[in-house]
């Protein structure tokens, strides 16, 4: 089926250059944060380019995703505006996790139930229960 | 008539920095142009698509990358202007309580800088498509 064929071909092209695409996305993420920063501080892009040690047109290409940020540029920006870039390393939420195989009917479900101590439960007011819309509250009667 | 659509979030989900979006955005394509879009992206346009997707998934706009059309703000254009080409993917944005759905509706090879009748007709058409969205 052509629909699947195109999908597979595209997936292969994507996998072949995944590092390049990841770098673009990471650079764009940094550029979005820097755009927010310069907007909040009233800094122009040409001033930012100067701090980064590149020409305004080069920086413009970085913001357009045609070129990537490098650490020297970020160091220049950090030094000029006395800011610090924090890096956090965390596992990315993967869509693959959602595609977990469901247990068959009758099969024991692996322990997914988390024990919550009774002290964490909060009492709920029952004053307005009479006015509750039963359908919205999940009531059956 | 209600148009069928196909979610294409899976295409770029391997690029870690495009997910998870701060703002819930889903990317779709009109089923009728699915094959055409795959062919379009195969032609070395994936890196540009990654840049555009970064804007889309972060709910951002930029005139030379991804922008709202002046004549209909619900219609947006993804701009593929590299390699001497001036292609557009015209999209329809539908806002919901949970976020935004972006549906790629038309692929267009734009011949001029300004919008002419052809572009205006496409934008108008994109604004009138009806979609059946699911949550």
Run of helices and strands of chain B: EEEHHEEEEHE
- Structural class by sheet pairing and helices of chain B: alpha/beta
Q: Please give the count of helices of chain A.
A: 6
Number of strands of chain B: 8
User: Shape of chain A from CA axes?
Assistant: elongated
Specify the structural class of chain A: mainly alpha
Blueprint of the fold:
The complex is a heterodimer of chains A (141) and B (135).
Chain A: H1 2-16, H2 18-41, H3 45-52, H4 56-63, H5 71-81, H6 95-98
Chain B: E1 2-3, E2 5-7, E3 25-30, H1 34-42, H2 46-57, E4 66-68, E5 75-80, E6 87-96, E7 99-109, H3 117-128, E8 130-131
Parallel strand pairs in B: 1-8, 3-7
Antiparallel strand pairs in B: 2-3, 4-5, 5-6, 6-7
Can you put this structure into words, describing what you see?
The complex is a heterodimer of chains A (141) and B (135). Helices cover 50% and strands 0% of the residues of chain A. Chain A has 141 residues and is an all-alpha fold. Chain A has a domain at 2-81: lambda repressor-like DNA-binding domains (434 Repressor (Amino-terminal Domain), Orthogonal Bundle). Chain A is elongated and about 50 Å long. Chain B has one domain (2-129). Helix content of chain B is 24%, strand content 32%. Chain B has three helices and eight strands, in the order E-E-E-H-H-E-E-E-E-H-E. Chain B has a six-stranded mixed β-sheet, with helices on both faces. Chain B is globular and about 35 Å long. Chain B starts with a strand and ends with a strand. The mean pLDDT of chain B is 88.
Summarize the structure.
The complex is a heterodimer of chains A (141) and B (135). With 141 residues, chain A is an all-alpha fold. Chain A contains six helices and no strands.
């Amino acid at each position: 089926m052509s629909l699947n064929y195109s999908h597979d071909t595209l997936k292969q092209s994507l996998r072949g250059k995944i590092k390049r695409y990841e770098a673009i996305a990471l650079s764009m993420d940094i550029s979005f944060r820097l755009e927010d920063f310069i907007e909040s501080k009233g800094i122009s892009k040409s001033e930012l380019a100067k701090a980064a040690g590149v020409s305004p047109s080069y920086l413009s290409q970085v913001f357009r995703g045609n070129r990537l940020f490098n650490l020297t540029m970020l160091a220049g920006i950090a030094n000029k505006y006395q800011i610090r870039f924090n890096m956090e390393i965390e596992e990315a939420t993967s869509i693959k996790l959602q595609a977990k195989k469901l247990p068959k009917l009758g099969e024991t479900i692996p322990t997914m139930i988390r024990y919550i101590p009774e002290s964490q439960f909060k009492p709920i007011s029952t004053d307005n229960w009479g006015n509750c819309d039963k359908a919205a509250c999940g009531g059956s009667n | 008539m209600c148009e069928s659509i196909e979610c294409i979030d899976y295409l770029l989900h391997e690029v870690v920095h495009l997910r998870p979006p701060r703002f819930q955005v889903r990317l779709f394509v009109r089923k009728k142009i699915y094959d055409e879009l795959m062919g379009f992206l195969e032609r070395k346009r994936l890196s540009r698509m990654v840049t555009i997707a970064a804007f889309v998934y972060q709910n951002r706009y930029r005139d030379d990358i991804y922008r709202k059309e002046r004549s209909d703000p619900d219609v947006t254009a993804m701009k593929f202007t590299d390699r001497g080409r001036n292609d557009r993917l015209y999209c329809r944005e539908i806002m919901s309580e949970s976020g935004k759905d972006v549906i790629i509706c038309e692929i267009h090879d734009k011949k001029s800088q300004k919008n002419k009748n052809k572009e205006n007709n496409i934008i108008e058409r994109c604004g009138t498509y009806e979609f059946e969205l699911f949550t």
